[in-house]
Design brief:
The structure is a single chain. By secondary structure, this protein is mainly alpha-helical. The protein folds into 2 domains: 136 residues, no CATH class; 151 residues, no CATH class. 67% of the residues lie in helices and 0% in strands. Helix 4 packs across helix 5. The termini are far apart.
């Protein structure tokens, strides 16, 4: 079988697996009455694609199974985190607003707007994994690219995992009721989980790019980053959070996406931050 015939087999298998996963997810969501369950299956879809690529591909075995291991660690951690986050909760406002804007809550619209979109995104973002599975061994300077990608993946996973852990601990403390989470990684970026997610996928792309023509899949991490920053991630969250007391001050002193040291806090900001305790509910700066 030629290289590209093998790729088409992998990508066709990926599409079938993702369709099956999204169909099951829709069925569960329809039964429980909320469709944010699609966030739980987000990571699982990538694990399924990486497994198919590792098994069906005949490219460099060490790189195939390295990507499988990395995607599995990332995907299962995210799946467990999203499951815990959504357990016992209602519908995610993002999906409610999406359907309200569409002006149609029919089954067809829900499938198209939520599940088909998610499945298509999973397939496109995973293209570096699929292409890498049919390519030969990494050589020469490609090893520098691969190790850089691995370092980026580790950095991204740490930002995601630590950011989510810090936010969960912050929200579980009654003393933080009504306060803005601006500690730890959240003092360096308002969205450490989204930054980490983007960095993970740039790392995956670099590993695939360590052998030509893996680099041609650069649109995959670029699209993922666009969605995380502008389309469905940080930008939507900022729109709702900007109305909360103290959040504009947090925006002024903390980077939007790329981590950097926080700006000095003025005396007025400190006094405003201290008054946030009267606000009902736990206010967090991110979606974690």
């Amino acid at each position: 079988m030629s290289t590209w015939s093998e790729f088409f087999l992998i990508t066709a298998t990926a599409l079938v697996l993702l369709t099956l996963i999204q169909a099951i997810t829709f069925t569960v969501g329809h039964r429980i009455g909320r469709y944010n369950v699609v966030d739980v299956s987000w990571g699982l879809g990538f694990v399924a694609v990486a497994a198919a690529a590792a098994v069906l591909g005949s490219g460099d075995a060490s790189r195939r199974f390295l990507l499988l291991a990395l995607v599995t660690v990332w995907g299962l951690r995210l799946t467990w985190h999203m499951y815990r986050k959504s357990l016992g909760k209602g519908e995610d406002p993002r999906y409610t607003d999406m359907l309200e804007r569409a002006g149609d809550h029919s089954i067809a619209t829900i499938i198209r707007k939520v599940f088909v979109t998610q499945g298509a995104a999973q397939w496109f973002v995973s293209l570096p994994i699929q292409v890498s599975a049919v390519l030969g061994p990494t050589r020469g300077f490609g090893w520098v690219v691969l190790w850089t990608g691995l370092a980026a993946w580790v950095t991204g996973l740490m930002f995601e995992a630590i950011g989510d852990l810090q936010l969960r601990r912050f929200k579980s403390d009654p003393a933080n009721r009504g306060r803005i989470m601006d500690r730890g990684l959240w003092a360096w970026t308002r969205h450490p989980n989204y930054f980490g997610d983007a960095t993970v996928w740039w790392g995956v792309w670099l590993i695939a790019a360590s052998v030509w023509p893996g680099a041609i899949t650069v649109a995959s991490p670029a699209i993922m980053t666009y969605f995380l920053v502008y389309a469905t991630g940080a930008r939507l969250l900022e729109q709702s959070m900007s109305k909360r007391p103290g959040y504009p001050e947090y925006q002024e002193r903390t980077s939007y996406f790329l981590p950097r040291p926080p700006r000095p806090v003025s005396g007025d900001d400190r006094r405003a931050h201290g008054r946030l305790g009267v606000t009902s509910g736990s206010i967090s700066a991110g979606a974690g």
